[in-house]
């Protein structure tokens, strides 16, 4: 009844400390993303106080910034899981990087399209 090779992570168990650190990372990342998103929302809303930009450009700024912030906020979940989920670590870190890059790119594009 020996398990097939490759189905286990070399027989090592995951430490409680790494699980705790991963969960703390997720919670702190999401909390930081919420605070940063709230500040970005307020800045985006006030960006057109002079009324120079069109309403469509202003809504594109707000929507793009918030969508990008949601993506960068969600990126913390696979990063935190990568702390202790060894067999999926490579995929989780790639997912983290992809979400982070796409979210940041979306925010940069919406910001530059406003001006």
Q: How would you describe this protein?
A:
There is one protein chain. The chain has 115 residues and is mainly α. The chain has one domain (33-114). The protein is built from four helices and no strands. Helix 1 (16-46) packs antiparallel against helix 2 (55-74). The longest helix has 31 residues, at 16-46. The chain is elongated, with a radius of gyration of 19 Å. The relative contact order is 0.16.
| Cα distance spanning the termini | 66 Å
Order of helices and strands: HHHH
| Biggest pleated-sheet summary | none
Overall 3D form: elongated
Topology:
Layout: H1 16-46, H2 55-74, H3 76-81, H4 89-114
Helix pairs in contact: 1-2, 2-4
Give a nutshell description of this structure.
With 115 residues, the chain is an all-alpha fold. It has 4 helices and no strands. It is elongated and about 60 Å long.
Key features of this structure:
single chain; elongated; 4 helices; 115 residues; mainly alpha
């Amino acid at each position: 009844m020996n398990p097939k090779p490759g189905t286990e992570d070399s027989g090592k168990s995951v430490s409680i400390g790494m699980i705790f650190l991963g969960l703390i990372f997720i919670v702190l990342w999401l909390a930081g993303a919420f605070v940063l998103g709230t500040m970005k929302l307020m800045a985006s809303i006030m960006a057109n106080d002079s009324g120079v930009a069109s309403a469509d450009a202003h809504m594109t700024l707000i929507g793009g910034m918030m969508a990008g912030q949601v993506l960068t906020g969600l990126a913390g979940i696979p990063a935190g899981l990568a702390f202790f989920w060894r067999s999926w670590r490579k995929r989780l870190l790639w997912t983290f990087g992809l979400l982070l890059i796409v979210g940041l790119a979306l925010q940069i594009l919406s910001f530059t399209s406003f001006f």
